[in-house]
Amino acid sequence: MMTTEELERATAEDFLAGTLLLVDKPLTWSSFDVVKKIRYAVQHKFGLKKLKVGHAGTLDPLATGLLILCTGKFTKKITELTLSGKSYTGTFMLGATTPSFDLETEPDLIRSTAEVTPERIAEAAGQLTGVQQQVPPQFSAKLVDGKRAYLSARKGETVEIKSREVNISKFEVYTDAFPEVHFEIDCTTGTYIRAVARDLGEALGCGAHLTSLRRTAVGEYSAANSLTVQQVISALGARP
Fold first, then answer.
1. Which letter, b or e, does each residue of 107-138 get, where b requires 16 or more Cβ atoms within 10 Å of its Cβ?
2. Which residues are annotated as catalytic?
3. Which domains does the chain have, with CATH numbers?
4. Could you read off the pLDDT of 46-59 as tens digits, one per residue?
């Protein structure tokens, strides 16, 4: 991974040979927005006509946190990095569901949380820990008959999405701000945290949706060592 000092000293040959950048993805940006912005900055600085840049593990626009970017020949490492385990923190809101399981869509069902206790929340989180079958959200990039599921969902159409095996090795919940629940999750790649919100809400009988999400780690790499998009651009001496 490159520090700001290393970015300042980097050459065009470095980026073509391969670099690994840890970037803190901003809220509302797509993962591709980050790739596009940084690729342009590098190409503009060095006058490169072409530069391979890719990311390992997509983050939704409403999520922030660690996005690993690979340039040049290091893009061959993307598959390996994508398969690494992930860590997240964030918040669920109990008592309401949304079609997308997060804030992309408005609540469609409000339910009482009067019978929900911290003990029941902890018990439900325990039930959702370990190896399990998880059904991805309708609002997801899963391919169904060659088409992204979210394209159908946004038209109000429902498609059949098969479950997949995931492993949630850590699921800690904090209920001091009830009915908002803060969480920490460690999981295998392919786990949808929005689906965890859905499953937690169903287990509690009150519904839930994801209200904030931050990826804190991918394998051995931590968001604590990441750079903002602006820090990367500034280190390259490029215009924002």
1. eeeebebeebeeeebeebbeebbeeeebbbbb
2. 60
3. 4-83+220-236 (3.30.2350.10), 86-218 (3.30.2350.10)
4. 999 999 999 998 89
